[in-house]
Every structure is written in C-alpha cells, then in structure tokens.
Write a structure and sequence with these properties.
Number of helices: 14
Largest sheet: 9 strands, antiparallel
Helix content: 25-40%
Strand content: 25-35%
Radius of gyration: 20 Å
Shape: globular
Length: 410
Amino acid sequence: MKYEKQLLQYAKLVVKVGVNVQPGQYVTIMSPLHAAEFAKMIEKEAFEAGAKDVKITFNDQQADKIRFTYADAETLSDIPDWFKEMRTYYARKGGAFISIAGGDPEAFKGIDGMKMLSFSRAMNKASEEFYDLMDQSVFPWCMVGYPSEAWAKKIFPEDKPSVAVDKLFKAIFNAVRIGRGDTAKKWRSHDRVLKRRAKILNNYNFKELHFKNGLGTDLHVGLVENHIWQGGSDKTNKKVKYMPNMPTEEIFSMPDMNNVSGVVYSSMPLSYQGNLIEDFSLTFKDGAVVGHQAKKGGEVLARLLETDEGSKRLGEVALIPYESPISDMKILFYNTLYDENASCHLALGSSYAMTIKGGEKMSKEEAKAAGSNDSGVHVDFMFGTADMSVVGVTHDGREITVFKDGNFVF
C-alpha cells in the first residue's frame, strides 16, 4: 500500500491525539468509501488503544447523488428514528467520533436546490440531541482528511490523476506534521503556541474586532460578554484532552449575533453541500445578513442563508495568521477543513458553547440572551488576506492592534 508508513503514523495520531481514545470507550468512524483502508487502520489503532468497540459508517457521494436526483423532497426529509439514534446512542455514552473528509467539492452540482434545503433542514432537526451533547462536551471528536481523485484533480487540474493524488497526500501529511521527528510531540508544541495566543486575547477581553483589507472588507464584529478565545486542544466534561480538527491553526471565539455590521468579502471559494460558492460578499446590519452577492454559486449561498433564522447570523470568528503552514503551501484545497486553517474565517450559523463562560450549562434561552447564535448549520467561510488588519476595541475604548499585514503582532 502506497504511503503505508505515513498512513500508519496518521492513524496513530488520530487515535492518540485527535480523539485520545480511552480504555473501554466506544469509537465511531465516518468514512467515504475511497478512504476505507485508512478507516480500517484507524479502527485497528483504536482497538489497540483499548476501545470497547469500533463502528465504521461508510458513505458514497455517487450513491447520494443518485438518491438526491430521483427521490422527492418529502422522502429526503423523512429521517427515520433509527438514523437519528445511530450517532446519538454513542454520543450519550461519551464515545469518540472521527470523521474523514475528502470528497469531490462539486459532487452535487446540478442537484435541485430545494431538495438539498429540505434534506438539510430535516438532518439538522434529527441531529439536535447529538449537537446538544457536543456543546456540553460529552464526547471527543476529530475531523481529518484523506485524498480522493476528484478532490485532487480539482486542486491540481493540470496533473495526471495519479500525480495529483500523490501531491495531495504529501500536502495532507505536511498539514498534520507527519514527517521527521515525533509527530505527537510536534502537536503538543503547536498546541502550546495556540494556547498562548488565546490567553493574550482573553486578557484583553475585547468588546469588538474591526477587520479591514484591500478586497473591501470593512467589518465590525462585536463579541459577547464573557467570551472565551479557544485554540488547539479541547477537553471533554471528564477532562480528557482531544484535538477537534487536524489540521488546526485557528484561535476562535463567539461573536455577538446581534452586533455585527459592515461588509465582508470572501478570499477563497466555499464548498457547501457539494457546490462551490466563489467571489462572494455579505453585508451585515444589527448582526444579520441584509445583502449578498456571488460571482458563482449565488443560488447556493442564498439557500444556505435561508436554512433557518440563525443561518443569517454569525456563530464564530476565527483568527489565523497569513504566514502559517497551510497558507505557506500556496494550495487552494477547496475544502473547509484545510482552507479555514489558511485564513481568518467567520462561520454562519451556530455558536460553540465553550466559547462563552458557563456556556455548556446554559439553556438555549439563556445562551440566546447572551448573544449566542442557534442554528442547524455551522458553515465556515474564509476572508483573511496578506494585507488584513485587525484592531481590537476594549470596553474602555482603547484600540489594540491584533493583526498587521495579515499576521498576529504577538
């Protein structure tokens, strides 16, 4: 098997650092068919780490596209109870969840938008308990990537498929620090850097951030009171450390869903539900999107914004330096897991409970009153650039430079 040595390191990294499997724990792996061998490597590593049981759920975009083409919207939105229970059962038990990403960024191009919207709304409704448990830090989770030919050819269109896939493998290994030396040790060191920057931001306790760049972004993002900047590893409610995304370069927190104003321009395409949205802008007033434009995928963007009331508002603001490992590769991945870690980004939709003090214990009403956004979606889009400036405004009116020329000043 090509890259067997690196993939074995990768599988160990996912199990031991990504979700940090504990003895007697259930593990669920969600994998595309093309990553089946890698999923089985992770399965073996999880059992060897002491997992009680490991379940793999495979998915296939081509089969899904056939279903979306022929099934009607009513059928697609009928989510059976057994499907709802499938993930929630293991979530209640504190099981570890591993998701492998890497499909075709345009797999569902041409599918009826209303069908996709109906399906999305139904899935969001069916997943409410699962995401509530996630907000309460009941279980660890980690998302990682694995190349597919379609994805690789989108990134490297001039190369033969085999060459494109090889390039993508190497880029992914680079992004997760697989190479010379102790990979786990390198991740622990990286985690300390992210935690140091989060601590500096938390000490400032900014009231808002002001973003500006040459694309035309001029956006004021208010932050909720008692917000918390997070980065790198997280902990479950049983104090087990895990790494939600691999790779990760971000420091992120909670915007005030009612206090965002101005305009933001995307700096990278957004792949959403197997469709690309490119060169788009969003205009905000009183926290909500009041105008939007896109050179490509405008109807998909409109559909995203119409998902529910919360999909028109922000749930996350994330800071990533322009000079970072993924950005330095100069590769447009057409995949949010990677592109979001090469650029400052915002998320439309739900907020993370752990980014406000006491958030895990708040009711939905209490969280909303504090400025936390509630939605069935959480969609990151990238807007960072090499000339991005970020100024933090404190509660006593001081202006502190956070980013200059696309990078942290500290």
